[in-house]
């Protein structure tokens, strides 16, 4: 086993802090959106807005990222809040899977990363759309209740007192900030843990070992999905990493990296397990993995290399 050098430690530190710094703004956006939803979105209003048809509700949830472009770093708090507000877990899960990819910012970044190649943009969009919708439909049949853990209600360690809404603007603003404060510190510890493990993965897995399997139609997809899970790169930046592997990996492998990573990565899995029951987390991951592998492999068969 090779000795750990000072350069390895410096590299680890840079990766660790870069993941945290990159994710923090999106975590902040996510917790503030979550608090706004809690303040202004009532259960009755949600019931009126959501269509009664199961599939239609899932389809609508999959395209909400166009109106609410959230990164995967901050999507879990919003998803949890939606379920607490009475949104079916299948609809909330679809929203969580689709929004980090199906939004204008990510699609523009993908286009730029691949030199305005529309094939990669449409493939990423299409595979993400199908994975999120089919996963939502499967979950709607398999999981009936909200799947939240009993301890998923917010508590504020940084502030004292019970969070209660107010009739005044100042009171409601304090309520919003207090809820965002609680959720930020609650989710932040899982972000730090995920960044730590991600830095370990990136400093111990050599890129050269990845490229040796890059042209295998099936194995390359699995390798890039595992890589995406551990590196936990933000969805607005992952296309540039994928593009750097463009000459050595298949199209399907690159699509798998850009679809599976924003949906299921290490830091998000930790956050999900903290908020939702194990059955939900495992079912979500298994279905998403199967669909990502299948559709990415189909991409290899249909379009071949980049």
TrEMBL record:
Keywords: Cell membrane, Membrane, Transmembrane, Transmembrane helix. It comes from the Bacteria. GO terms for cellular component: plasma membrane. Its main location: membrane. The keyword Transferase does not apply. It is a multi-pass membrane protein. InterPro entries: DUF318 (IPR005524), UPF0718 (IPR052923). It is found in: Cell membrane. The chain crosses the membrane at residues 15-41, 53-77, 89-109, 121-143, 216-233, 239-260, 280-298. Belongs to the UPF0718 family. This is Permease.
């Amino acid at each position: 086993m090779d000795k750990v050098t000072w350069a390895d430690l410096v590299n680890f530190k840079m990766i660790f802090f870069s993941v945290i710094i990159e994710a923090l703004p999106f975590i902040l956006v996510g917790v503030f959106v979550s608090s706004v939803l809690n303040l202004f979105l009532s259960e009755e209003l949600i019931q009126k807005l959501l269509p009664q048809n199961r599939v239609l509700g899932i389809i609508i949830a999959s395209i909400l990222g166009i109106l609410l472009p959230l990164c995967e770093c901050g999507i879990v708090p919003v998803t949890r809040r939606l379920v607490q507000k009475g949104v079916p877990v299948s609809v909330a899960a679809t929203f969580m899977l689709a929004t980090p990819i199906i939004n204008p910012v990510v699609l523009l970044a993908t286009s730029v990363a691949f030199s305005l190649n529309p094939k990669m943009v449409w493939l990423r969009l299409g595979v993400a759309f199908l994975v999120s919708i089919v996963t939502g439909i499967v979950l709607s049949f398999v999981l009936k209740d909200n799947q939240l853990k009993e301890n998923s209600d917010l508590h504020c360690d940084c502030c004292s007192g019970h969070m209660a809404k107010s009739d005044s603007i100042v009171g409601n603003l304090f309520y919003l900030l207090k809820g965002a404060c609680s959720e930020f510190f609650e989710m932040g510890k899982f972000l730090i843990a995920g960044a730590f493990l991600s830095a370990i993965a990136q400093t111990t897995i050599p890129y050269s070992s990845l490229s040796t399997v890059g042209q295998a139609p099936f194995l390359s997809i699995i390798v890039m999905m595992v890589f995406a899970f551990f590196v936990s790169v933000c969805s607005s930046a992952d296309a540039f990493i994928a593009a750097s592997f463009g000459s050595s990996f298949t199209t399907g492998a690159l699509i798998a990296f850009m679809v599976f990573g924003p949906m299921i990565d290490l830091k998000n899995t930790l956050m999900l397990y903290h908020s939702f029951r194990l059955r939900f987390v495992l079912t979500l991951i298994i279905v998403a993995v199967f669909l990502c592998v299948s559709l990415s492999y189909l991409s290899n068969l249909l379009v071949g290399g980049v």
